[in-house]
Design a protein that fits this description.
The chain has 355 residues and is of the alpha/beta class. It has 3 domains: 116 residues, NadA-like (Rossmann fold), CATH 3.40.50.10800; 119 residues, Rossmann fold; 94 residues, Rossmann fold (3-Layer(aba) Sandwich), CATH 3.40.50. The chain contains 15 helices and 12 strands. The strands form 3 sheets. A 4-stranded parallel β-sheet has the order 2-1-3-4, sandwiched between helices. A 4-stranded parallel β-sheet has the order 6-5-7-8. Helix 7 links the parallel strand 5 and strand 6. Helix 1 runs parallel beside helix 14 and helix 12 packs parallel to helix 13. The longest helix is centred in the first third of the chain and has 24 residues. The C terminus is likely disordered. Bound molecules: 1,3-dihydroxyacetonephosphate and iron/sulfur cluster.
């Protein structure tokens, strides 16, 4: 017999919970029937992250998502994230079917770097090594010498500099400037930003730090330099997650997408996490620090895409071949310099409760 709800307000909540559980069960069954694995980013809905871990998939940053998808034996990869992540999965596993809950889920960095404009930029500087961030289209990657993610951009650019190379960088200008400052490399920067990280405010962060003097500040390097300058740790989503589990502090101010808080709180349940400010106290319009495109992924869309076996990522064979070179270079570098990146807490594939 079903338990009787204690108030009338509990009735819709209880119904919602039952619908959610039924949906999760159907999604679990469909993943198994379709020989599919769920590859999720830390910024998607908490229920998708939990489902990925419960079903043997992964919740990870963009570098780990790429490696996990490439190495997993499943014939179908379901990428819960944004389009460039699905495209990277397809480029690395052209024989697998790559599904996404919503193909419209894109990224402001990808939108801000059109392949034709980028090709003209490269044509003007043929002597430079072309390094692109993962957050770009397959067509842009097809023109690059190197792809990097926030996990490995620093050591790769430092290595290129040590070999005397000058660099053409695209598209995130904050990350580009941070790498330039850290490595001293000669870098020409494209001018695009992330709509989420660009909103964090240095002056407001200073005030918040005064109110919480014991809090450590964790910053994703897509944030403005005034925010990065105040960080106790700068790093990829995985590096920030690791910082929360490893650092002695009990309080953290976190400048990255709010979606990461779910996994952070699971890995470090006793710690207090605060969102870094995106505006002053009196502001009438305030960014929610959550990527609108990551938010397009939902359990219902996941179920629909597994049921209908689509939408599916399709790429031209020639683009796959040309884009693959720069991704393979990055993966080979990471494999041969294992100490240069921060591994996820609990190992390559994060496990629930493995802190
Ligand atoms: P990560 O490589 O750290 O996962 O970053 C991807 C991203 O889109 C951050 O906004
Ligand atoms: Fe792109 Fe920013 Fe969204 Fe990451 S958070 S996918 S960089 S828009």
């Amino acid at each position: 017999m079903n338990p009787v709800p204690s108030t009338t307000a509990d009735v819709p909540a209880a119904r919602e919970a039952r619908v959610g559980e039924a949906q999760r069960r159907r999604a679990r069954d469909l993943l198994a029937q379709r020989d599919a694995v769920l590859v999720a980013h830390y910024y998607v809905d908490a229920e998708l992250q939990d489902l990925a871990l419960e079903t043997g998939g992964c919740v990870a940053d963009s570098l780990e998502m790429a490696r996990f998808g490439r190495d997993h034996p499943a014939r179908t990869l379901v990428v819960a994230g944004v389009r460039f992540m699905g495209e990277t999965a397809k480029i690395l596993s052209p024989d697998k079917r790559v599904l996404m809950p919503d193909l419209e889920a894109t990224c402001s960095l990808d939108l801000g770097c059109r392949a034709e404009d980028f090709a003209r930029f490269c044509d003007r500087h043929p002597d430079r090594a072309v390094v692109v961030y993962a957050n770009t289209s397959a067509a842009v990657k097809a023109r690059a010498d190197w792809m990097v993610t926030s996990s490995c951009a620093l050591p790769i650019v430092a290595d290129l500099k040590a070999r005397g190379r000058r660099i053409l960088w695209a598209p995130d200008r904050h990350l580009g400037r941070y790498i330039q400052e850290q490595t001293g490399a000669d870098m020409l920067l494209w001018d695009a930003t992330c709509v989420v990280h660009d909103e964090f405010k240095g002056i407001e962060l200073e005030l918040m730090r005064h109110e919480h003097p014991r809090a450590k500040v964790l910053v994703h390097p897509e944030s403005p330099s005034s925010v990065i300058a105040q960080a106790d740790r700068v790093g990829s989503t995985t590096a920030l997650l690791r910082a929360v589990t490893e650092m002695e502090a009990d309080e953290f101010i976190v400048a990255t997408d709010a979606g990461l808080f779910h996994r952070m709180q699971q890995m470090a349940p006793g710690k207090t996490l605060m969102e870094a400010p995106t505006s002053g106290a009196g502001a009438t319009c305030k960014s929610c620090a959550h990527c609108p495109w990551m938010a397009m992924n939902s359990l219902s869309k996941l179920e629909q895409c597994l049921q209908g076996r689509g939408p599916v990522i399709e790429l031209d064979d020639d683009v796959i071949r040309r884009a693959r070179t720069c991704i393979d270079r990055m993966l080979d570098f990471v494999a041969t310099h294992p100490g240069s990146i921060t591994p996820a807490p609990g190992g390559f594939v994060p496990n629930l409760g493995a802190a």
